[in-house]
Amino acid sequence: MADLTKGINANRIEGLTTLTGLLYFYEDRYEFKAHSVNGMSAESVIKYQDIENVSSRKTLGFISNGLTIRLKNGKEYHYVVSHSKEIIEFLGKRAK
After folding, report:
1. What is 55-90 written as a DSSP string?
2. N-term to C-term CA, the chain
3. Cα separation values, 13 from 3, 7, 42, 54, 96, Å
4. Contact 90/4 with Cβ under 8 angstroms?
5. Contact 69, 76 (CB under 8 A)
6. Given this model, what pLDDT does residue 2 score?
7. Which of 5, 13, 27, 85 has the smallest count of CB within 10 Å of its CB?
8. What pLDDT is attached to residue 3?
9. What distance in Å separates the CA atoms of residue 64 and residue 77, rounded to the nearest whole number?
10. pLDDT tens profile 1-60
């Protein structure tokens, strides 16, 4: 089981761009912080109450290691992570 109190390695997919970084989970939100080697500064702070749905997705159409987080405002975030099922369950319990 993943320790979600520590940073989890993650890739955030934005169109044709992949940002490598860490997901951090807190009591009321999660954060994605991209590594500086990406050449881009990217940080997301998402409150659990803003999440509408969390679902699994397949990377390259057949690898079950991805997840999609859809916010109530319609914006979606796509990640490739280890332990995606555990993260989906964790976020699903916290989304309101």
Report:
1. EEEEETTTEEEEEEEEETTS-EEEEEETTHHHHHHH
2. 24
3. 23, 18, 12, 15, 24
4. yes
5. yes
6. 60
7. 27
8. 62
9. 16
10. 466 667 899 999 888 888 899 999 999 999 999 886 655 667 889 999 999 999 999 887
CATH code at 8-94: 2.30.29.30
pTM of the model: 0.85
User: Two tokens at 62?
Assistant: 């057949």
- Is 12:19 a contact under the CB 8 Å cutoff? yes
Q: What are phi and psi of 20, to 5 degrees?
A: -95, 135
- Check: CB of residue 12 under 8 Å from CB of residue 86: no
Judge contact between 84 and 64, C-beta under 8 A: yes
Measured at the CA of 53, the angle between CA 26 and CA 24, to 5 degrees, comes to 20
CA-based nearest residue to 72, from 49, 43, 44, 45: 49
